[in-house]
Amino acid sequence: MLTALFQCVLFSSFVLFSNGFYVPGVAPVEFKKGQRIEVKAVKMTSIHTQLPYEYYSLPFCLPKNGTFVYKSENLGEVLRGDRIVNTPYEVHMAENIKCRLLCHHKNNPINWSVEESDKVASRIEHEYFVHLLVDNLPVATRIISSDTAERIIEQGYRLGFMSKGKAYINNHLKLLLKYHKHSQDSYRVVGFEVETYSIDKDDLNFVDDSCTFPSDPNPQLVNEDTGTKLYFTYSVEWGESDISWASRWDIYLGMKDVQIHWFSIVNSIVVLFFLSGILTMIMVRTLRRDIARYNSDESIDDMMEETGWKLVHGDVFRPPPKRMLFAAVIGSGIQVFLMALITIFIAMLGMLSPASRGALMTAAIFLYVFMGLIAGYYSARLYNTMKGKQWKQAAFLTATLYPAIVFGTCFFLNFFIMGKHSSGAVPFSTMMALLCLWFCISLPLVYLGYYFGCRKQPFQHPVRTNFIPRKVPEQVWYMNIFICVLMAGILPFGAVCIELFFIFNALWENQFYYLFGFLFLVFCILVVSVSQISIVMVYFQLCGEDYHWWWKSFVVSGGSAVYILIYSIFYFFTKLEITEFIPILLYIGYTGLMVLTFWLLTGTIGFFAAYTFIRKIYAAVKID
């Protein structure tokens, strides 16, 4: 079995990193004057379709030798739809080019067929952006905002534009590059912007390889009726800059909204103090009084009139229904929690910056896989505590429940993405590698955790469970589970809603998310607020003599996921301009997975907070 496991791990590693593990942006690259600098293409994206395409999915100019080579990519880049490939642009350090033909000959323009022209026009209509790289620095375009009249930065450059129902392509790129002199003969690339022009082929004049065009040329039409004849040209303009190599990403990561993040943090802390005040009132005043009276010699009748949580001491630790499923859900939540905590912490330290494309997703996947050991251990101890006997089946359910939902959803959506020939479609080899990670690493680790967890003593409870279950009295209306979910979810959602807006922008509008320091603070506030809410709700439930708290604490604590679902619907109708079926389906599928993951995360936090609270309060009273 160990040999098979080792072979599976080797296979998945070989598939993922057969061409070398590509970790860009780690160290600066020094260039000599005149040295060739490769211009690479990453992909094309649109916020209207959410379907990325590789660069050569359109009939662009090919490299000089007529073949293009894809670079090695990490797992995160593949899942993001990145397909890094070389381009025919010839750029040399600190050497300007006024205007040059990119490919073909001046007497032999590119001739697109009707089908190719229609394909290009469709991408322009959907406002696709092309993303290029120079020395791992993504291209940016400066535009004037129509709302504020300020110059803002866009990632990538627009493929073209629409005018009077016709599509026009940007077929001339002016590459604006900046260098920083590290030493006398050593240069570093610190800036990469582009200005786009649409120039009709008849307005271009050629002298050998050089070209000229008027200051106000006619735009190049993409003719969908008869096909399109055009030239692709480019120019290069270098400029010296005082920007250091370490600061070259500042143009993309300009912190314009710092105040709103701090407002979110302060608001969340105020909410925490409010919840802490409620808990202090309950635990210091009410609980101490209850425990003191319960430990005194008062009559049982007096105690029954005073409080209700003490009366269910013989049933409060009664195992819940579907204990195997409960243990699997909590185990999955532990795995998600540890993955999120460690990933955000590592990103906060700057080790998963946007310069390392795909590193964040890669780290999250591998952390989730290896956290199966800890998840299995604690899930097994909980399953033992609930007097479960079928630990092997419970371990299998824990290892497969959440990943099966995620993999099944993504596998289903992948068929639609493949039908559109998008680079966002996960290749078969990557799918096999992910399955190997799941079944050859994660599943055995969960079983290993269960093995050691089952050998440990169950969690100790301070009171014994009665043989005959106590009848639960009718509950007040506000303790209905749906009302509890809505009440419990408001405050935790309020703590994360600001960061959620920026995360959604990063996911659906192709923007960078980099404020992991704020995100880590918000994550800590979320953990504390969910724990406090869970304790308050469980206390009120036990006061109503309802001891069915196991599942309810988990479901109610995940109430903020309901508000995230509502917010995602609001975001879809107010921020996005998606109209086609497949992009809508992708949004529904991926957002549903996000809501499920958040529910598992917060539900698990709330359960353990409630479980610890209940064990503490019942350990403080004397039971005959």
| Percent of residues in beta strands | 15-25%
Alpha-beta content class: alpha+beta
Biggest beta sheet summary:
5 strands, antiparallel
Shape verdict: elongated
Return residue spans where pLDDT drops below 50 for at least 5 consecutive residues.
1-25
Percent helix: 40-55%
Could you give the distance between the termini? Answer: 52 Å
Rg over C-alpha atoms, rounded to the nearest angstrom: 30 Å
**Mean pLDDT value:** 84
The total count of helices amounts to: 15
How many strand elements?
17
Descriptive key words:
single chain, 624 residues, alpha+beta, five-stranded antiparallel sheet, 15 helices, 49% helix, elongated, disordered N terminus, Transmembrane 9 superfamily member, golgi apparatus, transmembrane helix, EMP70, transmembrane
Write a structural description:
Helices cover 49% and strands 15% of the residues. With 624 residues, it is α+β, with helices and mostly antiparallel strands. The strands form 6 sheets. Strands 1, 2, 5, 6 and 9 form a 5-stranded antiparallel beta sheet that branches. Strands 3-17-12-13 form a 4-stranded mixed beta sheet, with no helix packed on it. Helix 6 (323-348) crosses helix 15 (581-619). The longest helix is centred in the C-terminal third of the chain and has 39 residues, at 581-619. The protein is elongated. Mean pLDDT is 84; it is low at 1-25. Residues 1-20 form the signal peptide. It is a multi-pass membrane protein.
